[in-house]
Design goal:
This is Aminomethyltransferase. Substrate binds at residue 211. Its EC number is 2.1.2.10. Keywords: Aminotransferase, Methyltransferase, Transferase. The chain is of the alpha+beta class. It contains nine helices and 20 strands. It has helices at 2-15, 23-28, 48-57, 77-84, 132-142, 167-172, 219-230, 240-249, 285-293; strands at residues 18-19, 32-36, 39-44, 60-63, 68-73, 97-103, 109-119, 122-127, 149-152, 157-163, 187-192, 195-200, 209-215, 236-237, 298-305, 316-319, 322-332, 339-346, 355-360, 363-370. A hairpin with a 2-residue loop joins β11 (187-192) and β12. The N and C termini lie far apart (65 Å).
């Protein structure tokens, strides 16, 4: 019986979502939680519309500690990442970051990543929570034969984001880092009220903003410091719900929606991240070279709807009665005031201005193909 009980306890622990080091803080703030990629994450605190508005007009505070932080270091760290990823990481200067992807041998996207070059021989690879194990295992496999090591520090690292037009004002009050010199897609070591952080500027909301990588044990204190500094600027905590509508307005893809292993970078309209000109071979190169020559049958586009009913993921797109595409993400845009969506449509129907219809639970609603992004900050 004791053995059975222990096995049951282990099974129950496996079923329970993982919690970030800020979970208790979110509970105290009255957050509504959801399971996201195996993590218990705040989906909203009070109003997702208020949270969305705060990021667009003032500043919001996000817990992104479910993301994976994987360090690659050694004399051949650059060579490893050039081999393992589709981007040219050896050409990245220390202190800068790059959006890239990791693909399988057939060119399918395993994940989209942000990679920071911290020093000549050290990189930080940030992966999506749902693909953390896949990316870590692929890098561990692909490092073999190189003078480099892969160090997965995800559990020991927390990630907090400060996003919005007043984000720099909040950070300026608590750090001596030269924020004006910190460019978009760059990072710098910094100290925030005694806490050592890696301070980055690589937002996912369409607004200016910063990400702070910090030791997980220090995250609650850092969250409190940022909350206090942000109070005069209208800062509020923000959950995953508004992060999704913010990234949708900004036309940014989400893995599992606009990206998947069944798609390649060219099919996703992101062929620009594949750098065939970089030195040496890389995983998926031969397949991607062939895919680059082929005409993509379906194209990722933006859609603008009418009324108040938003197309949602999986909804069919129609031209008259013929199915010509499928919605991947959709919502009523809080900023713009009308329904927006991203979708894959047959190439013949991808031109902006094309009129289509979407089947919203049996009711046919008109939509128009538009360019991405839907929203760009001034």
């Amino acid at each position: 019986m004791a053995g059975t009980s222990a096995a049951t306890d282990d099974y129950e622990r496996q079923r329970v979502s993982k919690e970030t080091s800020l979970h208790g803080v979110h509970q105290d703030l009255g957050a509504l939680f959801t399971d996201f990629a195996g993590w218990s994450m705040p989906v909203r605190y009070a109003s997702e519309l208020a949270e969305h508005k705060a990021v667009r007009e003032a500043v919001g505070l996000f817990d992104l500690s479910h993301m994976a932080e994987i360090h690659v270091r050694g004399a051949q760290a650059a060579d490893v990442l050039d081999h393992a990823l589709v981007g040219n990481l050896s050409g990245l200067k220390p202190g800068r970051a790059r959006y890239t992807m990791i693909c399988d041998a057939e060119g399918g996207v395993l994940d989209d990543l942000v990679v920071y070059r911290l020093a000549d021989e050290e990189y930080l690879v940030v992966a999506n929570a749902g693909n953390a194990d896949v990316v870590a295992e692929a890098l561990a496999e692909r490092v073999r034969g190189f003078d480099a090591v892969v160090d997965n520090r995800s559990e020991a690292t927390a990630l907090i984001a400060v996003q919005g037009p007043k984000a720099a004002d909040v950070l300026a009050a608590v750090t001596d880092a030269d924020l004006a010199a910190l460019k978009y897609y760059a990072s710098v070591p910094a100290v925030v009220k005694g806490h050592e952080v890696l301070l980055a500027r690589t937002g996912y909301t369409g607004e200016d903003g910063f990400e702070l990588f910090v030791a997980a044990a220090e995250a609650p204190a850092l969250w409190g410091i940022l909350t206090e500094a942000g109070e005069p600027h209208g800062l509020i905590p923000c959950g995953l719900a508004c992060r999704d509508t913010l990234r949708l307005e900004a036309g940014m893809p989400l893995y599992g929606n606009e990206l998947s292993r069944a798609l390649n970078p060219f099919a996703a309209g992101l062929g620009r991240v594949v750098k065939f000109e970089k030195p040496g071979d890389f995983v998926g190169r031969a397949a991607l070279e062939e895919l680059a020559k082929a005409e993509v049958p379906r194209v990722r586009v933006g859609l603008r709807g009418a009324g108040r009913r938003a197309p949602r993921r999986g909804y069919r797109l129609l031209s008259e009665e013929a199915e010509v595409g499928e919605v991947t993400s959709g919502a009523l845009s809080p900023t713009l005031g009308y329904p927006i969506a991203m979708a894959y449509v047959d190439r013949a129907y991808a031109e902006p201005g094309t009129r289509l219809s979407v089947d919203i639970r049996g009711k046919i609603e008109p939509v128009e193909v538009v360019g991405l992004p839907f929203y760009s900050r001034a």
